[in-house]
Amino acid sequence: MVEVGTTNKTRLSDYERAINERTALLLKVHQSNFRIIGFTEQVSLEDLVALGRKYNLPVVEDLGSGALADVSKAGIEREPMVQESVKAGADLVSFSGDKLLGGPQAGIVVGRKDLIAQLRRNPLYRAFRCDKLTFAALEATLLSYFDEEQAWREIPTLRQIALSDQEIKRRAKQVVQRLQKLGVPKEAVSVQPSTSQVGGGALPDQFLPTWCVVVKPKEGDSADDFAQRLRLGNPSVFCRIQKDALWFDIRTVLPDELKELAECIAKAW
């Protein structure tokens, strides 16, 4: 593997100068889990495809998160979509089955039939291939994308990203009311505005407004010990500690989990 360009600036000429008799393909990797801002420059996929055609070299793009739906509809920065990379002429496109796609954890490669066949013949294919349960979950996820509006309704990742501020606050209040019924004092629990980070492995600099249920530990208890009891409980519950209290981002909780979340918190309090 030969690096081209610099950390912040890469030009088409950098790729072309690196091509020699040993070059097998041209690779473009999307910055899906980090951002470089300021004095930057990068090569468009269309230009790289044209360079690949000139030297008869396949062009591979690694998209990382692998969006199949336009996430800008949810008010966040638009991510390049798999369909667009294929249309732009990439010979192979690799991306995750989870993250923005919203399916099971897996690696997906789409593109030219002859190149896919080469990948399948590699001995490592058998060692790293997915099992039948992963394929079944991935198939169910992809079927929803035949209708993008259906995908936004059915796929939990997209549905949670698209949740409105008002709906999250309503659900947070439900959890607070449930906690009070379970014996957690009113002064120990509240609903507070916050932000949700869309992901560390996808859209690392994108945040959405949200509402959190904030629970203070009992007098004499610590937030660390409180959080540890939740992690070791059944089911295990993870949260973040902020200002000596436990914060639960309700955007990350499915509707049928709200009652169970409240019960777990009350049990550990």
Which key features would you list for this structure?
11 helices, single chain, 4-stranded antiparallel β-sheet, elongated, 2 domains, alpha/beta, Aspartate Aminotransferase, domain 2
Give the CATH class of the largest domain.
Alpha Beta
Which sheet architecture does the biggest sheet show?
A: 4 strands, mixed
Poorly predicted sequence stretches spanning 5 or more consecutive residues: none
Strand content: 15-25%
N-to-C series of helices and strands: HEHEHEEHHHHHHEEHEEH
Indicate the radius of gyration in whole angstroms.
23 Å
Number of helices in the DSSP assignment: 11
Do you know the CATH architecture of the largest domain?
3-Layer(aba) Sandwich
General form: elongated
* Major beta sheet, strand line-up: 1-2-3-4
Number of domains: 2
Task: Give the CATH topology of the largest domain.
Answer: Aspartate Aminotransferase, domain 2
CATH superfamily of the largest domain: Type I PLP-dependent aspartate aminotransferase-like (Major domain)
Overall pLDDT score:
92
The share of residues in helices is: 25-40%
Summary?
The chain is α/β, with parallel strands linked by helices. The protein folds into two domains: 12-160, Aspartate Aminotransferase, domain 2 (3-Layer(aba) Sandwich); 163-268, Aspartate Aminotransferase, domain 1 (Alpha-Beta Complex). 38% of the residues lie in helices and 17% in strands.
